[in-house]
Amino acid sequence: MEISLKGRKALVGGGSRGLGKAIAIQLASSGAEVTIMARNEEKLKAALSELPANFGQQHNYLVVDFALIGQFENTLTQWFQNRQVDILINNTNGPSAGGVLVKTAEDYQQSFDLLFKTVCHTTMLALKGMQEKKFGRIINLSSISVKEPLQNLVLSNTVRSAVLAWAKTLARETAPMGITVNNILTGYFDTERLDEINRAQSEKLGISLDAYKHKMTMEVPAGRLGDPKEFGWLVAFLASDLSSYITGTNIPIDGGLLRSI
Question: Which is the CATH superfamily of the domain at 9-187+228-249?
């Protein structure tokens, strides 16, 4: 099976590192012209230099801060005024860790802006061009926590569930237009973001980061953390013509970690 994205244009959130960067690299390897967006311009430039351009693509980057919702909306609105994308990867940095007893209503509002409003705004802008072309791939990066809430991540657990319900509704409305909408439920992947979360947890428990990471790894039936490249392969398939009959789904990629059906 050969996945070809030649002639397609993709916009990838959080593309300067971790899963977003791995996705951007794989999409570019498959022939897509990729724009990566994140808040750190230096990291964006470094990631951009790693994107393959074997098919003559002109990759680019967009500096945005997902946490500043007003600026984010203005920047994306301007960017889409004279651009269209075929593939949209909704991926943002996650909200701060913490449990129910320490979070406030303001924390939930900030998380809603970060995880929901940014996804909704970007998607609605991208849909205009997708509807004209009768083709589109919208892929939302979520978490296994929507099925089995993770300890100390109440903000993520809560708001990501809202995104999935919205995406399911959107998938039904856009399916007749040749546009698919799918969610990927992310397990434990070896990324900087996971290390940041683990470091906070290990300090709270009074153990080393390596010890905590080993404990986490042993929870995964596959016996290891995921390689970001593996995530990129799944996204490339969902972004391709080969996945045209797959929409409205929640696909776990977690090495067997989820116990629920």
Answer: NAD(P)-binding Rossmann-like Domain (3.40.50.720)
